[in-house]
Q: What sequence folds into this?
């Protein structure tokens, strides 16, 4: 990446995601109200485009190798209020309103444990 | 990953990060007070260990291929209050107290723009 490209990406008003070698950026979903991080996954160009078109968070499933509409099986969609972009445009934070638990375990957020001593403990979120 | 491994990872109290093929997990730093996402980068086992030992956020720089103590050149360290782990243990959220702007551009957070129409606009964070 040239210095000019980097300057454009950092200070410009053009959305130009910097996809990695696998064609992915990081996508973080944050509850716009509780301000908890709900989940994080990867997004490819198709997932970014579909998210913008529909207002529902889409990701790219690396294990299944395809587009993944969050909530497609559970009905627990994430309604996207705003998409924030980081300095080098390789990560997005989506401010969302969740339509149910974000985690497939039934927890509101996937981040339901914290490191405590040598292990993990459950937290209330 | 076997079903047993997956169940252990999801419901257990053992911290066993699931590093990807490159030996990395996603590390998100969130301001414990303002509850803004400050930055996101990758962490390898060494970065995770050093973060736990020192209480200062460390990452793995993919471009430089080495351990990166956030703030090592700027002095803007991120003091880690708590480390949260997601269901499949391939991402961490660090609740931090920043000792200065988290972004190398001088912004408090790297996520200082949002998508607006076809472009980006600056936001106050």
A:
């Amino acid at each position: 990446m040239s210095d000019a490209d980097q300057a454009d990406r950092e200070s410009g008003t053009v959305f130009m995601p910097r996809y990695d070698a696998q064609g992915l950026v990081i996508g973080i979903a944050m509850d716009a109200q509780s301000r908890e991080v709900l989940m994080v996954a990867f997004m490819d160009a198709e997932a970014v485009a579909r998210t913008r078109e529909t207002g529902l968070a889409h990701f790219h499933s690396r294990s299944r190798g395809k587009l993944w509409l969050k909530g497609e099986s559970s009905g627990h969609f994430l309604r996207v209020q705003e998409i924030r972009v980081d300095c080098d445009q390789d990560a997005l934070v989506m401010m969302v309103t969740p339509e149910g638990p974000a985690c497939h375990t039934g927890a509101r957020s996937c981040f339901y444990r914290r490191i405590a001593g040598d292990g993990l403990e459950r937290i209330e979120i």
